[in-house]
Amino acid sequence: MWERSLVLSAPGKVILHGEHAVVHGKVALAVALDLRTFLRLRPSAEGRVCVRLPGVGVVRSWDTLRLQALRRGFAADFDESKPPSVEQLDTLREFAGIAAGASAPESLATLAFLYLCLAISAKYGWTEEELTLINRWAFQGERVIHGNPSGVDNAVGTWGGALRYQSGKITPLKRVPMLRILLTNTKVPRSTKVLVAGVKEKLLKFPAIMNPVLDSIDAISQECQSVLEAMPANPSPEYYPVLEELFDINQHHLNVIGVGHPSLDRLCRVTASHGLHSKLTGAGGGGCGITLLRPDTSPLAVEAAKRDLCACGFECWETNIGAPGVTLHSSSSLNAEVLHALSKS
Question: What is the model's pTM?
Answer without folding.
Answer: 0.81
